[in-house]
Task: inverse folding
């Protein structure tokens, strides 16, 4: 018993519980959305699995508690959340929809029901700090495993178990504390009429909008902040710089809320509102300056994006990150306003339930900007509108702050003792070290460039967004396929995973970091363009990077063009993944061959979505050589759509295929070995 009391003096169990539950929600909602996408949208159709998103409507359940939510209800929801989080990495993709869905539902019930409790004046600050720590932990766990959360990965799942145990411990401490407070309260004398009147709930106003603001802060954190590679792939900006800047601003937010919240009490609604709207404008501009009109007809000129971009394209990004603390300040202030209004369970249930519906809506909009050609007629509306869901989310974060009244600007410090301050600083230092060290280790280039090889091995690999034919994530199995060949140059298609449909992971960065030696990489088209990805990995330096876009009627056709320097020779490499009707494919091939014919030492590879003896194939072999066909002139492969074409001046040493059954994708992987450049 004495141990518990001593521990409570050093660790705020409620703050610890918030930090872990927010983190667990980000993890399992990511698994929920990506699992639905894998099993439905990768098959280009919607079926009953999409109903898994209905778990996000769970707060409506609170309406059954007409007058009072049982005191133990939030803790029960938190406990189920913890159990579901531990189970989620252990099950297959189909089962994840159920397990992660239940966990996500319990978190939303936990959070919404918590606002029915009496506040000691510090609860809102703990919520803001807890959200900040959850985002920091997510960034650290992803940094430790090159953008894939290490606590969901292999033997490192024990990290999640440890966090689960800590959260369960916090729950029991909370129950014990509440029991003691209830007992103490029952022994107090009956309050006077004046005291009773002062405790009457004030008129409830705007709880629906206030709840929407809290939920949309969580949505924005999930969409972008918990995995900075997402923002890096929006913009083509430095992953190191973006990650460390976001971490720095979140740490600043935590320290401000934990140690000096009275500074915020000097602000007013006007300042908060202006700060919010400038942040939202910067967020939307960060995305929109990297979008452009796509070619509207087959004869339209291709759009070319040359990297690196001019410095002024990154001004909105810098401003957005600089203003980031407003997110966590909002969370604390809005939480305080809801607590002050003491809404009924019915009001909480309806408000957070509607917010859950909006969560579903903006998630679909964001996904439809990528698959706009496949879920007609709804999805076509959202072509090239990647910025739209972020504008909607931003408006519902910023606007409700006008409802925060003056008496809610009364935030109180939750870290007051010397020991608790030391623990806070120590934890932040640990997170900083755990974030900076792996990012620099993975991202910094090699000390020396490899020697020029005797022959050059090239590989094209459509990885189906890192998923095998059964719908299970197969990053490591695909890496083993690549390792078995040890290629010098790899062209990846369907590699655009740095979005919610891919779990906000970055398969290109993960492959480059986990393959033997060092691989340079270029992601290809940015995620805001809505392509499926056309990336390149190389053991040798990559320069003159650019992407070009041609007319499309289904997918955005974004192709990658780079120069790879090997010894004294430059190779012009093209990564392709056209799709759509005959006009779209012809527009792509016409532009591609125009560029090929203007280049030498050409390697053109990818998933061309066309077969031999078609117009599009013949356009390639008029100038280039089909490496596989040279080595296998009589072998029939009627379904072949993946090719490696090279300049005829090269000697084809070998060319083979790894069958689909062994490639852990829905495509075979082709490779070729060339000489005499």
Result:
């Amino acid at each position: 018993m004495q141990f518990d009391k001593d521990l409570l003096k050093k660790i705020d169990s409620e703050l610890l519980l918030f930090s872990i539950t927010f983190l667990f929600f980000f993890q399992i909602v990511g698994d929920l959305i990506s699992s639905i996408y894998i099993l439905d949208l990768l098959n280009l159709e919607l079926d009953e699995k999409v109903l898994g998103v209905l778990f996000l409507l769970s707060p409506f359940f609170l309406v059954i508690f007409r007058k009072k939510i049982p005191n133990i209800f939030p803790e029960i929801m938190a406990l189920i959340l913890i159990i579901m989080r531990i189970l989620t990495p252990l099950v297959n993709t189909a089962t994840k929809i159920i397990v992660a869905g239940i966990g996500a539902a319990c978190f939303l019930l936990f959070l919404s029901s918590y606002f029915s409790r009496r506040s000691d004046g510090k609860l809102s600050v703990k919520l803001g700090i807890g959200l900040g720590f959850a985002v920091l932990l997510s960034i650290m766990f992803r940094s430790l495993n090159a953008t894939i959360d290490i606590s969901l990965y292999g033997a490192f799942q024990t990290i999640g178990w440890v966090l689960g145990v800590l959260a369960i411990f916090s729950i029991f401490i909370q129950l014990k504390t509440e029991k003691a407070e209830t007992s103490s309260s029952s022994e107090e004398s009956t309050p006077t009429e004046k005291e009773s009147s002062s405790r009457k709930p004030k008129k409830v106003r705007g709880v629906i909008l206030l709840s929407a603001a809290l939920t949309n802060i969580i949505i924005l954190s999930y969409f972008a902040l918990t995995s900075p590679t997402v923002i890096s792939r929006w913009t083509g900006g430095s992953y190191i710089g973006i990650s460390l800047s976001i971490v720095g601003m979140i740490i600043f937010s935590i320290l401000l809320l934990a140690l000096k919240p009275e500074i915020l009490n000097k602000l007013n609604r006007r300042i908060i509102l202006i700060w919010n709207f400038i942040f939202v404008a910067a967020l939307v501009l960060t995305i929109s300056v990297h979008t452009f009109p796509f070619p509207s007809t087959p004869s339209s000129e291709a759009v070319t994006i040359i990297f690196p971009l001019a410095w002024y394209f990154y001004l909105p990004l810098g401003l957005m990150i600089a203003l980031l603390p407003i997110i966590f300040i909002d969370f604390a202030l809005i939480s305080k306003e809801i607590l002050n209004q003491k809404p009924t369970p019915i009001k909480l249930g309806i408000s957070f339930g509607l917010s859950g519906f909006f969560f579903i809506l903006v998630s679909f909009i964001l996904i439809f900007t990528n698959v706009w050609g496949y879920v007609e007629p709804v999805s076509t509306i959202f072509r090239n509108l990647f910025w739209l869901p972020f504008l909607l989310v931003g408006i519902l974060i910023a606007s409700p702050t006008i409802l925060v009244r003056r008496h809610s600007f009364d935030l109180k410090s939750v870290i007051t003792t010397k020991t608790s301050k030391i623990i806070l600083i120590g934890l932040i230092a640990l997170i900083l070290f755990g974030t900076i060290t792996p990012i620099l280790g993975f991202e910094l280039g090699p000390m020396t460039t490899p020697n020029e090889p005797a022959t050059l091995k090239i590989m094209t690999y459509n990885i189906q967004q890192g998923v095998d034919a059964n719908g299970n994530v197969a990053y490591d199995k695909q890496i083993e396929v690549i390792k078995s060949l040890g290629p010098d140059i790899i062209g990846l298609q369907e590699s655009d995973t740095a979005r919610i449909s891919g779990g906000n992971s970055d398969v290109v960065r993960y492959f480059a970091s986990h393959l033997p030696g060092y691989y340079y990489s270029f992601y290809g088209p940015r995620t805001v363009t809505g392509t499926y990805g056309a990336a390149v990995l190389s053991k040798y330096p990559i320069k003159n990077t650019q992407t070009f876009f041609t007319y499309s009627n289904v997918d955005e056709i974004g192709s990658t063009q780079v120069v790879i320097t090997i010894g004294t020779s430059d190779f012009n490499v093209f990564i392709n993944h056209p799709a759509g009707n005959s006009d779209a494919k012809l527009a792509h091939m016409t532009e591609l061959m125009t560029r090929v014919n203007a280049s030498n030492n050409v390697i053109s590879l990818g998933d061309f979505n066309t077969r031999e003896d078609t117009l599009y194939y013949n356009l390639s072999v008029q100038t280039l050589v089909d490496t596989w066909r040279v080595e296998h002139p009589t072998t029939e492969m009627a379904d072949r759509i993946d090719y490696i074409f090279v300049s005829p001046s090269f000697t084809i040493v070998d060319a083979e295929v790894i069958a689909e059954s062994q490639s852990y994708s829905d495509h075979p992987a082709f490779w070729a070995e060339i000489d005499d450049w």
